[in-house]
Design a protein that fits this description.
Layout lengths: L8 H11 L6 E3 L7 H17 L7 E5 L4 H12 L3 E5 L5 H11 L3 E4 L9 H6 L2 E4 L4 E2 L33 E6 L9 E5 H11 L10 E4 L6 H13 L3 E4 L6 H11 L3 E4 L1 H17 L2 H6 L3 H18 L6 E4 L6 H10 L3 E6 L6 E5 L11 E2 L4 E5 L8 E6 L6 E2 L3 H6 L7 E9 L5 E6 L4 E2 L5 E2 L1 H9 L4 E9 L2 E8 L1 H7 L7 H23 L8 E4 L19
Parallel strand pairs: 1-10, 2-3, 2-4, 4-5, 9-10, 9-11, 11-12, 12-13, 24-25
Antiparallel strand pairs: 5-6, 7-8, 8-18, 13-14, 14-15, 16-17, 17-19, 19-20, 21-22, 23-24
Helix pairs in contact: 1-2, 2-3, 6-7, 11-12
């Protein structure tokens, strides 16, 4: 029998299966009759299959799949065997996938049909077995992508005497490979306690009830979605609803109407795109609107009207709209705050499973990452006596065991007294709310020794009309802003002009860049002024977690 008093994934899972047996569990949008009891039965059948394939306690099992209920079944089946899950982000390059499989020494791979093309013959030869996530069938060696549709489920017809493994809290549960913006991926070792404790403590920031409905948009192999969007709802008996297709508007909007989610998690890019494509143009379309939004009282009224429409777009039942994974544009956050939209900001890292702090409800302030999650300690190391800024360091049961097969790198990220170095620079304000200035590695030291944070300059640039995204880098001692314009909006705004369209838009783009250059330098401090602006004609290349790969542009 499992010791359900422990902070382990099997203990959490079996508690929920028993306590919430009749509740809807993890389902595709439109399904409601798949319960926690059903989930418990299927996880044990899948665990039986893994045993038949030779998987034992301590073995590594990788998951390369788009989001679906069977992803969760695979994860829990691995856990109740005492094996170690290796979730792989779907957007990783085939070479990165092969490296992860090799480095983690994974014996078996769960792979979804759409990602099977990422599995090379060489990678297939490294693995003992593969299982098709879509229908949980064993994939024979040398099966072509076209033959996958012929496979049928390999689950046993009925459960035998399956007995879950009594894992310990400090046992390794998962190795998650980061998609760092520096170009190097590391295997973060998370224990059962790291994950189960974080899922439990997340509720101290936002209560989760068994009638809550989550809709899942972020990859389950992303630690934010894995812990807060999956383990958290399962722990408290809520339902999680998955899309059968990518979340383009034609798929997402009907799903939102059907599910009427109470809780959602997104990365900033999603809500920033909605704001810049649907909301901001409304406020900029005429001189009158621009005038009205330049005054706080009228701007707040207009924001409330727009916020109400946005709320209805998301199904009209949201209690919590969590945003994490990167810094949110300040203008977008101000709109959400003034509109009364139920947003929250989460801060953390893969290495902290992931939550460290949250700006939720009364603890929200524009630009802040809120308060430390209960049970987490945060401190500012080597704080500047004038600004109060320093490295954010953390302690808590959610801090990783270390980097897999990398003791030297692990040693570098912990202080002698056991605090984890986040690599982020920040400060606490007078209300004891955390503010993050930027990554220490991306900080630029000015000619007179000033600390320049590219992220802060980018926030100013990104609020400018026609700007979609930007990146500030240092080149030959000068600050250069690379700017990707919203050409659809530029074309729409200047479509009445009679000049040759392409040439005119090229000239107009250059004119806009110079205008942005001037306005930005009027708003930033003297040492953060940019020396040059250049047009970035195509979107910046991003990591699977939607952060710009800075290392490609310096």
């Amino acid at each position: 029998m499992i010791d359900t008093s422990k902070l382990t994934l099997p203990a959490m899972f079996y508690n929920s299966v028993e306590k919430f047996a009749a509740n809807t569990s993890i389902v595709f949008v439109g399904e409601e009759n798949y319960t926690y009891k059903n989930l418990g039965e299927d996880v044990e059948l899948l665990a039986e299959l893994l045993i038949q394939l030779g998987i034992q306690r301590g073995d590594k099992v990788a998951i390369l799949s788009t989001n679906m209920p069977n992803w969760g079944k695979a994860f829990f089946a691995i856990s109740v065997l005492g094996a170690i899950a290796v979730p792989i982000l779907p957007d990783f390059h085939p070479n990165e996938i092969k490296t992860i499989i090799e480095h983690s020494e994974s014996k078996l791979l769960f792979v979804s049909e759409g990602l099977y093309k990422s599995v090379s013959k060489e990678l297939s030869d490294l693995l003992e077995h593969m299982i098709l996530v879509d229908n949980l069938s064993v994939i024979p060696k040398n099966t072509s992508a076209e033959q996958l549709t012929e496979l049928t489920s390999s689950l046993p017809d009925s459960k035998t005497n399956f007995s879950p493994v009594n894992v310990e809290e400090e046992d390794l549960a998962s190795i998650i490979y980061t998609s760092g913006t520096t170009g190097s991926s590391k295997g973060v070792m998370l224990t059962h306690k790291n994950l189960a404790w974080t899922a439990q403590q997340s509720r101290t920031l936002q209560r989760i009830e068994e009638d809550d409905r989550f809709i899942s948009l972020l990859p389950l192999s992303h630690t934010l979605e894995n812990t807060v969007g999956f383990l958290l709802p399962v722990k408290y008996g809520a339902s999680v609803h998955y899309l059968r297709k990518p979340p383009v508007p034609s798929v997402l909007l009907p799903a939102l109407k059907k599910v009427k989610p109470t809780i959602m998690l997104v990365v900033p890019l999603i809500i920033e795109k909605v704001y810049k494509s649907k909301i901001q143009p409304t406020f900029q379309k005429s001189a009158v609107m621009r005038f009205l939004t330049s005054f706080a009282p009228t701007r707040k009224v207009l924001h409330k009207v727009a916020g109400k429409k946005l709320y209805e777009t998301f199904g009209g039942h949201l209690r919590f709209f969590g945003i994490g994974g990167a810094k949110l544009d300040t203008n977008v956050e101000r709109f959400l705050f003034e509109s009364g939209f139920p947003y929250a900001i989460g801060y953390g890292l893969t290495e902290t499973a992931p939550l460290l702090s949250g700006a939720v409800q009364k603890n929200r302030k524009v630009g802040s990452a809120g308060i430390a999650m209960e049970g987490v300690s945060l401190r500012i190391a080597d704080a500047d006596p004038v600004t109060g800024e320093g490295e954010i360091q953390a302690k808590g049961e959610n801090v990783m065991k270390g980097y897999y097969k990398a003791p030297e790198i692990t040693k570098e990220v912990f202080t002698e007294d056991g605090w984890f170095k986040t690599g982020d620079r920040g400060l606490f304000d007078s209300d004891n709310l955390l503010h993050i200035r930027g990554r220490i590695k991306t900080m630029i030291v000015g000619a007179s020794g000033e600390n320049i944070y590219p992220e802060e300059i980018e926030t100013v640039i990104n609020k400018m009309r026609f700007v979609l995204e930007s990146l500030v880098v240092e080149k030959k001692g000068k600050l250069v802003a690379m700017i990707h314009l919203n050409m659809e909006e530029v074309e729409e705004n200047f479509k009445h002009m009679k000049e040759e369209a392409k040439q005119y838009l090229a000239d107009k783009s250059e004119e806009l860049l110079q205008e942005i250059h001037k306005k930005v330098n009027e708003e930033v401090n003297k040492f953060s002024r940019i020396n040059q602006v250049v047009l970035q004609p195509i979107p910046f290349e991003r990591t699977p977690t939607r952060k710009i790969k800075r290392f490609l542009y310096v």
